[in-house]
Write a structure and sequence with these properties.
Layout lengths: L2 H11 L6 H12 L4 E4 L6 H12 L3 E5 L6 H5 E6 L4 E6 L6 E5 L6 H4 L3 H6 L1 E4 L2 E4 L5 E6 L12 H4 L4 E3 L6 H9 L3 H6 L7 H12 L5 H16 L9 H17 L7 H12 L14 H11 L4
Parallel strand pairs: 1-8, 1-9, 2-5, 5-8
Antiparallel strand pairs: 3-4, 6-7
Helix pairs in contact: 1-2, 2-12, 10-12, 11-12, 12-13, 13-14
Length: about 300
């Protein structure tokens, strides 16, 4: 693993205890130039993880608290009339930052949620007919509470598809929780974190992730996985071409994290639950099988060519 990436993973692990696999997945998502959705109960460290990554990378960071009365202009910005100049001046919203934390995104209405779609897909926003580019790098970490909790609006499939990965943190194990209870306040630890790499170095690592070699046989394996989802009668929809690209790019980033210049089938298997879990739903009446379990079943049913 690249020394800077190793320092980054190790440093974030000092703040979020006992969650190294999820931290590696979040960093792989960033290397693949995607966006991350963290779904879990309140209080397990979703917001803290986003803060720790932003601080460790030295990125400009904005947090947007999503509520039911949040408006699109509160995210994108608004044009205000300047009487002295007799013209409208644009006041950019919090989306104009390198790392955005969209906290509790499913507590806002679908109209407000959709304000992020263009930003996430095109790295730009259009306000009052004018298109404005967003910073580079641009990374969105959104958190959401489970949909059965009060005051939540389920994210539509079109918006879920904009997230490269979805992860869950879960409760810490006993050892990690004891260290958490006996240790320093997490916010204090975040304030003291140094930047592990420069922004040019991060951009170079993202470029390297895109150039990790993928063999024809590996593409055969990815196509076999995608084809299986499209003919499986239990699934509502199969994986789309965009999902296939997401899977391949995520596997490239995972291989780079492991210090390899070629993608192996194990890389695809490692990232598939996070990449496909929020894109798969069971057709069976009354089924509550999580998408990550459907993805694991997919791995079991499709042999490596």
């Amino acid at each position: 693993m690249n020394d800077s990436l190793k320092r980054l993973v190790d440093q974030v692990c000092t703040v979020i205890l006992g969650k190294r696999p999820q931290i590696r997945m979040a960093i792989a998502c960033m290397l693949a130039r995607g966006h991350l959705l963290i779904e879990d109960l309140p209080g397990v460290g979703k917001t803290t993880l986003a803060h720790a990554i932003a601080k460790s990378l030295g990125l400009e960071f904005h947090r947007i608290q999503f509520t039911s009365d949040l408006l699109p202009a509160d995210i994108l910005g608004v044009s205000v009339f300047d009487a002295s100049a007799s013209t409208f001046a644009f006041h950019p919203g919090p989306v104009f930052a390198q790392l955005i934390l969209a906290d509790e995104i499913n507590r806002a209405t679908p109209k407000t949620q959709s304000a992020l779609l263009e930003a996430m897909e095109e790295h730009q926003v259009t306000v009052d007919g004018k298109t404005r580019p967003l910073p580079d790098p641009f990374f969105v970490i959104a958190t959401q509470n489970p949909s059965h909790q009060l005051g939540t609006f389920e994210l539509p499939e079109s918006q879920l598809d904009r997230f490269l990965m979805r992860v869950q943190l879960g409760y810490p194990d006993a050892e990690a929780e004891r260290a958490l209870l006996a240790g320093a306040e997490r916010r204090t630890l975040i304030d003291d974190l140094p930047a592990c790499m420069s922004i040019p170095e991060l951009l170079e690592l993202q470029r390297q992730a895109r150039s990790v070699f993928v063999s024809a046989a590996l593409i055969d394996y990815v196509q076999a996985l995608i084809a299986f989802t499209r003919r499986d009668s239990e699934l509502v929809n199969g994986l789309s071409p965009r999902a296939g690209l997401a899977l391949l790019n995520s596997a490239r980033a995972w291989a780079l994290l492991d210090g390899r210049a070629q993608v192996e089938p194990e890389d695809v298997q490692a990232v598939l639950p996070s990449v496909a879990g929020h894109r798969l739903r069971s057709h069976a009446l009354g089924s509550t099988m999580p998408g990550a379990e459907l993805a694991q079943r997919l791995l079991a049913d499709v042999a490596i060519p």
